[in-house]
Structures are given as C-alpha cells and as structure tokens.
Amino acid sequence: MPTIVSATTSAHLDEAYRFWYDIYVREMGRHQSDPLTDHENRRLYDPIAPHGNLLLARDAKGQVVGTLMSTWTTEPALEKYVDLFRLDKLNNRQRAHSTVTTKLMVAPEYRASRLGMLLARYSYAWGLESAVHYDFIDCNDHLVKFFEKLGYRPHLGRIQHSEYGPVNSMYLAVNDEVHLFNQRSPFYRLLAEHQEARRVYA
Asked: Alpha-carbon distance 77 to 63, whole Å?
C-alpha cells in the first residue's frame, strides 16, 4: 500500500499539480480552458493548495498516486466553496472549526484498492488533532455511498458546481460518535482512541 505524506514544500505542490493534470485534464477531459491549466508543462494549479492540509500518496517508486486536501473555511482562498456550500450561514465559532475537503483522487491502478479510504483516515486523524468539528465535501453520484460509509450526511442535496456540474453536497460531524458507530465508519475507532487519549492525558 502506498505511503502517505503531507505536502510541505513547493516541490510537493508541483507533484500534486502534475498529478491533478493527469487525472482531471488528460483522463477526465476537464479544465481544458481553465486559466489555471498549464498544458505546456502539464500542470493544473489550484490556488487553495498552498493553504490546505494536502496529503500525497506515494507508491514504491515515489510516484504520487493519490491526493486529498482539507482547508479551513476561514481561509480566504476558499471563498468559492463558502458560497457553494452556503457556509456564511455558520456562526463564527462553527466557521473556525470547519473545513472543506477537496481533491480526493486516486490513480487508475489503485481505484480497486483501499487507498481512498486510507487517505480519508489520515485526513480525519488530522482533523481530530486540529479540532475540526465539521467537514464539507461535494461528490458525484457514484461516490455518495462511499462517503456515507465514512459518516458523511446530506447537506444541501444536489448543487451546481461551476466546473463539474450537478454534484452532491455532504457534511461530516467529526465528533458524532453515535452516528459514526451506527454507520460502522472506519472513523469511529479513530475517534474512540482520540477521546481515550484525551482522558488519559487530561
């Protein structure tokens, strides 16, 4: 299984940009006319990337084969998602403890593996340590069951993404122990371990 690292350098970001170009532009045919798409150098830039918690999955050869990014809703670069998810309806405290997750992407050869789940677990663990209370995502129809299994619930229903068309808006209550247990979410054990550690070291 690939290893997971956090992007901390400009070189890491460049690796992500190249990976996103391969998936979004070359494979899916998206972002063809996007001003952030550099066809000559095969890069798909994202102005949010330098500000988010970006995870990279590397295979045994060191190649990036998966990504996931979580960004605080108070980050100015995330403004388009604030509008998309109507996060201005949250109060200041809720905004301070909320993130938006994007760029959960896995290379074709790993799509039948548990890599997507592994990235999600790493991101959830980071969220626990960082005091995230709510996380918001949008996804296509075929991924709704995957996110429901993790513990996400419907948020605004079907919404119109400016780049990807109709998508499903969902949210995760990070500390909702009962819901995670009922969903048999892989996050439940992480939450229980986190809560126990806090009791021991309190």
From this structure: 28
